[in-house]
Design brief:
By secondary structure, the chain is of the alpha/beta class. The protein has seven helices and seven strands; from the N terminus they run H-E-H-H-E-E-H-E-H-E-H-E-H-E. The chain has a five-stranded mixed sheet, with helices on both faces. It has a two-stranded parallel ribbon with strand order 1-2. Helix 5 links the parallel strand 4 and strand 5. Helix 1 (2-11) crosses helix 3.
């Protein structure tokens, strides 16, 4: 999910910092090889690497240089709607010291209802951010079918559930680059 999204943002003119903790994946990307199959992404990777709009790193803290931080993390399910939030919590903890006002944090992973509000509350508690004003937190769920990313990122409506006044609008500013309709909703509905 993360790499095709990063490549798609970069292909549309945005400068992207891609964070990946697996060195083998970073090595393959740097060598111009997609680490897995997804229709059309090998050509996209080659085009983006030639454009110099993608920087890759293993350090989550390097994401602090971005205005928008999109989290595409594993969220395995324990039971019906209970997910393992350990990866989300770890990344948010890693980002806490470097987050700044004006940034948006967008969950793109499959998460249970309440997760987005939990992240917003955690940022408010740990750093004193006024979510929706100082910093923006939203959920923009990934709903794209395997093998159809490039086709569906520009055609499927993008659902955005923002916390507080400005979070949904701020996330929409990022995702509108794809030209697909944007549907604003609550985080729980998203």
């Amino acid at each position: 999910v993360g790499l095709p999204l990063a490549l798609s943002f970069a292909d549309r003119g945005l400068d992207v910092i891609g964070v990946e903790r697996e060195p083998a994946v970073l090595e393959q990307v740097a060598a111009g090889r997609m680490p897995y199959r997804e229709t059309g992404t090998q050509e996209l990777l080659e085009r983006v690497l030639a454009s110099d709009r993608l920087t890759t790193t293993r350090s989550v803290q390097d994401a602090a240089g971005a205005d928008h931080i999109v989290l595409t993390l594993g969220t395995p399910a324990h039971v019906h709607i209970e997910i393992d939030m350990s990866q989300i919590k770890q990344v948010v903890d890693d980002l806490l010291p470097v987050l700044r006002e004006g940034q948006s944090l967008i969950l793109r992973s499959t998460v249970a209802p309440g997760t987005t509000d939990f992240v917003a509350g955690y940022l408010a508690k740990q750093r004193g951010f006024d979510v929706g004003n100082d910093i923006y937190v939203a959920h923009a769920p990934e709903r794209i079918a395997e093998g159809r990313f490039l086709e569906e990122i520009v055609s499927l409506p993008c659902i955005i559930g923002g916390v507080g006044e400005g979070s949904g609008e701020r996330a929409a500013q990022l995702f509108e680059v794809f030209g697909a309709p944007i549907v604003q909703t609550t985080p729980v509905q998203a």
